[in-house]
Specification:
It is built from 4 helices and 51 strands. It has a 43-stranded parallel β-sheet that branches.
């Protein structure tokens, strides 16, 4: 063979080997790519199936939250989509305790069977122990026949409410009486099986929805017309619902009357203790050993400058004089027996630096007040009384007083932190504005806000500890409460307004009295859960006039009178004997929870929401209008009763 032919054969052989190698490599790469793609698809399918199983758990928990009947135990199947939301069918019911003692695999197999036979994306089972204190959710997600599971075990403690609270317009334990033209627009119910416990004695009364009577109570109406002779009355002496005659309230002839599924026992929450005493920052020790320079008096048109620390007798500024404290970047300590600014006199604090003034006696400020310049700060500590008046401006970093404190002013007083730790009175007056930008802590024998504006500017803390009465009169306005506590014997909002900062809250504890009058407002238009008034006294709670109150009102033992043309928007909890509603006091959504009380409605009183009482009596043209949002707005937690289904105590997840 010639060299050329041998060379050609060698090249051909080499080419065949290269092609073979490339073919093997290509096959290997394709196999790897396909394997990776299949693995990726399986991973994606498992992940989506997992999230579908997790969604099933959340749907199951939502069902548990809404299921007051305990009937929704079993297997559900369905899907979740953006267009339709959650769409599920109840495929197989379980009894309480069914499958609970068996191996979970039995339930797993049942759920898998449901997800395969129904070709659903999600299927889950809800099963519970015999007493329903423990619940298990077994959920499966399906994606392209790939199944993933999640098991959630729940145990519940506390609560104890096996029924809703505000699901009826009126629920009364023992008696419902309607006279005149009184109306209940919604469902009404009672635990009682006593004949006549639902007494419809007014010719114009109406209950627009189902009437529920006690378990095993007679559901007839006494008297009722004979079915064959409507003009003849048939007596049902055991009937819970009664009327004065067959010609009265003929709507009752075909009105639905049913038995309750179970006895409802509503209890009052534990009444809270008074808030703890205010914790004040330490009142400073007054400095000793300072140079004693005697009295300092500046009058006429003169001015005087102080630039060194010293101890004075009295300091007085009058006429048109000016007393200047020039700090020059330093902190000065000034001690005095008293401080008085009068006439058109004024004090100027020129920074940078801080002036700490310690006054053993009393302070009186009028004139042109106190101003700070160039980042100067003025801390004033007063061991006696403090009084401001006139049309002046006062600027202080910290004011700390131990005696009678009267912040009367027609100008503007600006203070970062105000501390009053006294057994004497605290008051504001005049038409000016008091601005507190940080802390406001006042302990006093009494507190009076008479006209003017107090602005807490959404500061960090506002606390009152008042031994006797705290009052608002003269259209006084308190604004900007962010973290407020009022602990007093009596709160009297005779004519004034209390407003919260956005997302602020206020706790009021009144031990002997609480009332509002005139056109006063407390948190008008604010969040219902932002204000809570706990009233522990025995004197009648009186909310009259054109008042506006938004919040929770918790009454330990007193009668409550709500009247005039006022509006209450929120929750009333009462442990007192009577809640009396007259006039048109309740125009917004309200829930009245008074399970041991008699709720009386007269005149044109209107409740939009729901009422729970021991006895309910309505007359005149009064009415209760059930609002469907009431139960959602006022869950058991707002009353202090814990969650409706009890509180979730333990939660154990597995797969």
């Amino acid at each position: 063979m010639s060299p050329r032919k041998r060379q050609t054969g060698y090249v051909l052989f080499t080419a065949l080997i290269v092609i073979l190698v490339l073919s093997v490599l290509t096959t290997t790469v394709l196999t790897l790519v396909l394997n990776d793609s299949m693995q990726l698809n399986r991973t994606e399918a498992r992940l989506e199936a997992h999230y579908r199983a997790l969604s099933g758990v959340e749907v199951a928990r939502a069902i548990l939250e809404k299921d007051s009947t305990k009937n929704l135990r079993g297997i559900f199947g369905g899907r979740i989509s953006d267009s339709e939301g959650a769409v599920f069918e109840f495929l197989q019911p379980f009894d309480l305790g069914e499958y609970w003692g068996e191996d979970t695999q039995v339930v797993r197999d049942a759920v898998i069977g449901a997800i395969q036979s129904e070709q659903t994306e999600i299927a889950f089972a809800i099963l519970s122990s015999d007493d329903d204190s423990e619940v298990k959710i077994v959920s499966y997600g399906n994606r392209n026949s790939v199944l993933e599971s999640i098991v959630l075990n729940l145990a519940f403690t506390g609560g104890g409410y096996e029924f809703p609270i505000f699901d009826m317009a009126v629920f009364s334990d023992s008696y419902i009486g309607l006279g005149g033209s009184a109306r209940i627009e919604g469902r009404a119910g009672t635990n009682s099986v006593t004949p006549g416990a639902v007494d419809l004695y007014g010719g114009g009364v109406m209950v627009t929805d189902t009437i529920y009577v006690g378990v095993d109570g007679d559901v007839h109406v006494n008297p009722s017309p004979d079915p064959d002779a409507h003009w003849i009355a048939v007596e049902y002496p055991d009937a819970v619902v009664t009327r004065s005659g067959i010609w009265n309230n003929t709507w009752l002839n075909s009105h639905p009357i049913q038995n309750l599924d179970q006895y409802r026992e509503y209890v009052l929450p534990e009444f809270p203790d008074a808030p703890p005493s205010i914790s004040f920052p330490s009142f400073p020790d007054f400095p000793g050993g300072l140079p004693d320079v005697g009295n300092l008096s500046v009058g006429g048109n003169k001015s005087a400058t102080v630039s060194e620390s010293a101890e004075y007798g009295s300091i007085s500024v009058g006429g048109s004089a000016e007393l200047i404290f020039n700090l020059s970047g330093r902190d000065l300590s000034i001690r005095a027996s008293s401080l008085n600014i009068s006439g058109s006199g004024k004090i100027s604090v020129i920074g940078p630096g801080t002036l700490n003034m310690y006054v053993d006696g009393n302070v009186s400020i009028s004139g042109n007040g106190i101003t700070s310049q160039n980042s100067g700060r003025f801390n004033l500590y007063v061991n006696g009384s403090f009084n401001s008046s006139g049309n002046n401006n006062v600027e202080l970093a910290n004011l700390y007083t131990k005696g009678l404190t009267d912040l009367g002013n027609s100008g503007q007083m600006t203070i970062e932190n105000l501390y009053v730790d006294s057994n004497q009175g605290f008051s504001t007056s005049g038409n000016g504005t008091l601005r507190i930008s940080s802390e406001f802590l006042v302990k006093a024998s009494s507190a009076s806000f008479s006209s003017g504006i107090v602005d807490f500017m959404n500061g960090s803390r506002q606390e009152f500890q008042i031994a006797n009465t705290m009052s608002l009169t003269g259209n006084a306005v308190v604004n900007g409460i962010s973290n407020g506590v009022i602990n007093c014997a009596s709160l009297n909002v005779g004519q004034g307004h209390i407003n919260l900062a956005e997302e602020g809250d206020l706790e009021v504890y009144a031990s002997t009295g609480f009332n509002m009058g005139g056109s006063s407002t407390l948190n008008n238009g604010g969040d219902r859960e932002s204000v809570r008034v706990d009233y522990a006294g025995t004197n009648n709670l009186d909310l009259t006039g054109n008042i506006r109150y938004t919040g929770v009102l918790n009454i330990l033992q007193a009668d409550a009178d709500l009247g005039g043309s006022g509006e209450i928007d929120g929750l009333v909890i009462s442990g007192g004997p009577n809640v009396n509603l007259h006039g048109n006091p309740l125009a917004k959504v309200i829930a009245i929870y008074a399970p041991n009380s008699t709720v009386n409605m007269v005149g044109s009183a209107t409740v939009r929401g729901a009422i729970v009482a021991d006895r309910f009596v309505a007359g005149g043209s009064s009415k209760v209008v059930f609002e469907s949002e009431t139960e959602e707005l006022f869950p058991p937690g707002t009353i202090g009763l814990g969650d409706e289904e009890g509180q979730e105590d333990t939660e154990f997840w597995s797969r």
